[in-house]
Design a protein that fits this description.
Layout (H helix, E strand, L loop, with lengths): L2 H6 L4 H28 L2 H17 L1 H10 L4 H25 L11 H33 L11
């Protein structure tokens, strides 16, 4: 597979699925931890999750997408990383509404607007990270640090 195909479509599907799924699990745990810490009135845990959630939602998609692009996971997987926080947030709100968790529900927040905002910020960051990762991969190929022919196809 040529370098262009590997960077655009992706060569390492298992790694791509692990990258997106792992990031989704981390975001889900952080958001669920935030809800639990708020409901249990744990100030220390709430302070930690108040710092962790914005980091995961707004800043993490760019370096994760850059790493995925450099590893040749493909554009769709790298951009999916940007959508993960919005999807996890929407799922958490819907589950909270169904289960009747206080303070979590569609009636308490504008679900559509917040979800779209998370998705826009996440996809924008993931796109920038993807572009940076593609640039790094192409420069590494050009300099000879990384040989496209020797990469394993997993």
């Amino acid at each position: 597979m040529t370098t262009t195909e590997a960077l655009l479509i992706g060569r390492r599907r298992r790694l791509a699925v692990t990258m997106v799924g792992g990031f989704a699990a981390v975001v889900a745990l952080a958001l669920a931890g935030t809800v639990v810490a708020d409901l249990a009135d744990l100030q220390t845990a709430a302070a930690l999750t108040d710092r962790l959630v914005p980091l995961l939602v707004f800043y993490a998609p760019a370096p994760i997408a850059a790493t995925g692009a450099y590893a040749r996971c493909g554009g769709p997987a790298c951009l999916a990383v940007g959508v993960v926080p919005a999807v996890v947030f929407a799922a958490l709100v819907l589950v909270g509404t169904v289960l009747g968790v206080p303070g979590v529900g569609a009636a308490d927040s504008p679900l559509g607007g917040v979800t779209v905002s998370f998705a826009l910020v996440g996809v924008s960051g993931a796109f920038v990270g993807y572009c940076a990762g593609v640039t790094a991969a192409m420069l590494a190929d050009l300099v000879g640090v990384r040989d496209d022919a020797t990469d394993d196809e997993s």
